Each structure stands twice: as structure tokens, then as C-alpha cells.
Amino acid sequence: MISSLLFTGPNCNACGTMKKNVGEAGLTYFEVNISTPEGSKLAQEYHVMTIPTLLLCDLISDSTMGNMKVTPLKSLVGSYPVLSIKQAMNEVGFKEGQA
Hints:
The chain is α+β, with helices and mostly antiparallel strands. Helix content is 32%, strand content 32%.
């Protein structure tokens, strides 16, 4: 299964633009606010140093452990236009509306 994480934070104007563009590109995503303890931990785990960062991932369910294994496929750091987001989606095999 393929999914996406969008790392954002408060008072980030570019984050609002990126959320709008990701939506217009037809990509559903899980927003990670790096100002929360959980968001900060995820940002450290995936080496996110700048917001916004869109992380396109492959999620594999590990039924023996009851966890999800997340494999990053591509990251877009900063605010990107819709066309560039769609190109990145195509590169990793995402389809519009895919979570």
C-alpha cells in the first residue's frame, strides 16, 4: 500500500500552499504537525529538517508484529506546484486519490 505524509508546522505559510497543491494534485495524505511530540518524533525518524516536506511512502503491514513498516520512496522538501507533485506521484506509482 502506498501512502503519503505531509510534515507541517504552525506559522508556516508555505505549508498552507503545499497542502492546497497536494490536494489539487489528487493525493490524500496524513498531516504530521512537527510541533507536537509525536510529530517531532516522526520528523526525527525520517530526517525531516525543513517544512513543508511531503514524504511519499510504501506501507507494508507486518501481521506478525501488528505494525506497519514505512519505506520512504521520495520526498519533496519545500512548497511544490501541482504539476511537480503529480510528476513525483507518477515516479513512484501513485494514482490520484490514493492515500
